[in-house]
Each structure stands twice: as structure tokens, then as C-alpha cells.
Amino acid sequence: MDDARVIESSWREPQRFAVLFDRHAPHIHRYLARRVGRQVADDLVGETFLAAFARRDRYDLAYTDARPWLYGIATNLAGQHHRDEARQHRIRQATAAEPAVPGHAEQVAADVTAQAMRTLLGTALAALPAADRDVLLLIAWEQLTYQEVSRALAIPVGTVQSRLHRARTKVRQVLAGTDAGATYEELTTNE
Amino acid sequence: MNEMELLRELAQQTPLPAPAELDAARARLLAAITTDPATYATALAEVTIGQPDPPAGQLRPPAPVLSAAKFMYGGAISSAALLIAALPFIGATHGKVLGHPLTPTLTITLGAVAGLALIGLWLWMARATSQGKNWARILSTVLFALATLELLSALEGIGKDGVVQALFAGLTWLSGLAAVWMLWRPASSAFFKSAKAARSRPPSQIPGP
Fold first, then answer.
1. Which residue of B has its CA nearest to A189?
2. Which candidate, A96, A60, A163, places its Cα nearest to that of B13?
3. Mean pLDDT by 10 residues, chain B (209 residues)
4. Cys-Cys with A9: which of A16, A48, B78, B206 at CB 3.0–4.6 Å?
5. ipTM over 0.85
6. A1-85: CATH, from 1.10.1060.10, 1.10.1740.10, 1.20.58.760, 3.40.50.970
7. What are phi and psi of A190, to 5 degrees?
């Protein structure tokens, strides 16, 4: 049974909505964890599904996949959270490295490089306008299509494309303009 | 490797949450589900298994249908106000029926009857749509379309004395618009479909013990 049918059946049998939770909550949680950190994600994933449940009677059944709808709600909640918290700090925290595990020299070097890139990307993402960042992350992290992002954020596909282009350009500029830019240059020349 | 691939690669280092991490969120959702009005209807259906299904008219309408009914009751009130505001002017109009001029008393009587019929129509549609009757939804929509045309023609000939009437007429039309909008929401369509299925279900299909 696709998502639209699950939502339709939940209009008369609300407990059916739990199927949607079991199906998508892990991925929505991971998306939120990347954006706001795991601790806050625990709260926001609950709020995402509560909001979706409350608005289920307005869901357009023409869309069989509910993921863009859920990502849209999650993105709005993450945006509200960012307005309450210091945005840059949170993004750095969300992209912060796990504690390094002792290993051989190559592994340690790889970890250091990955850590440098995380910090760089965190800085680059923090510098983006929220609207551009939402588009970039939904496409890069969640691998939504332009049409799905358009649905999630309620913006035209053309706007998705222009925001993505702008975000990518800015990320490239930020990465290239830092001391660690050499690492980025090295990586990008290995394409 | 470009910045998109780099982002994806770093993102992959964030694992999916363990099931236990989602327990609190799931519990919150289940609590909301338990307190949802539609759950009461489902629970009632479960404990009454073995008894005949309730008639279609007793199905609990979803929120948009209830809202539509409220707008219709609002439309009835607005129509009543419009009738009261218009009565003093009705007698001054020079109506004709089949070429014969009407007396002021007859004109007022006919105007009042038409106004009361309109109010009755609002109340009838509100009741019928709440009971899941799809014909009432269709008729309401047709009546709204006719009311829109009538309002447009009435507004063209309105004078300074008719400002109050125009205000009430506008309010009545807005009530109709809101009601029709609510009647065609996806949840409303599902309700009308369920009600139709319940009405057409033969007695042999009523679940037994």
C-alpha cells in the first residue's frame, strides 16, 4: 500500500498513520540529525509526524510518495529551530566528527582530512541563506529530485534550480577561500 | 569529486537511528492518535462488531465536512439578516407577475417566502451534507454557482441605499464559497464515498459474530 493510500485510510482509522511513521521516521530523523544534531532531532522528528498527522486531511492523494511532504515539514521545523538557536554553531555541531578511533597511520590521516572537510562544509553551509541551504541539503543529502524539493518547499521547480545553482556556487567560493581550501582543491581535481 | 558528492559522502557518515531512539517520537504520535476524534469512531465500530453497522447518516463526518456545515449555518444566519434588511425596500419595488402589477403587500409576502425558502435551503444542505449525502454536495455546488451569477447581476444594479444589503449578500456568498471549498477537500470526498458504500451495503454483508 503506497503512502497516499495509508494517509487516506488514516482519515477514518487514525492508527493507520503509524505505518507512515515506521516507514519514514528513521530517514527523517537522520535528515534532522544532520541539520540540528541528534538530540534535537529526537524532538523534531516527533513534532514532524505530529504536524503531519494533524494535517493529514489536507494531503493531496495524487502524490503516492509522502516523503517530500514530510521533508517539507521537517525542513520548516529545522528552520524554526535555527531561528531560535545560533545557526552557525548548530550547523558546525551537526557536521562535527565522531571521536577518532585509534588506528593505523593512513586511517588517522583520512580522519584528519574528513574532519577538515566537515569543518569547511559546516562553515560553507552556515554562510548560505536558509532558503538556498534547504534546497542544497534536500538534494545532496536526501537525494530528492527537483520536483520533490519543489513539493517539499512549495516553490516552483525553476526556483529550486536557481537556488541550488546559487548555493553550489557559494559553497565552492567559501571552500576555495579558506586555508583548508587546498584539501578541497586536491579532492576536486581527483574527479 | 565535486561539492555535492562531498556533501553526500560526509552525510553517509550519519547512521540511521536505532529503533529505541524513535520510541519517544512514536509514543507522542500514538498519544495524538488515541485522542483523535476519528479514533473514537473506530473504537466504537470495534466494540460493536456483531451488531448491524450504523446507518450512513450516523457516520462521523471529518473536520472539513463539519466546517462546511458550520459555514452553511452561517449562510442561513446571513440570509436571515439580508431578508430583514431588505424587507423595507421590497414593498417599494414594482413587481409584476404575468404582466399584472403586484400590490406592495403581495410583493412583501412573496419576498419573505423566497427569503425563508433560501434559509431553509441552507439548513437542509447543511443537514444533508453532514449525513454524507453526495447529491447534497453536488446540489450545494450548483446552487453556489447560481448564487454567484445572481450576485454579480444584483451588484450591477445596486444603489446607495443597498450598501447594507450588498454587505450581507457578500457575507452570504463568502459562506457559500467556504462551504463548497470544504465539501470538496480530500477528507470530505472520502467521507461521502464511505457513506455511499455504507448505504449501498446489502444486509448480508453486515459483519456478524
1. B1
2. A96
3. 76 81 88 73 48 53 88 90 78 65 78 89 92 91 88 70 73 90 86 75 42
4. A16
5. no
6. 1.10.1740.10
7. -85, 10
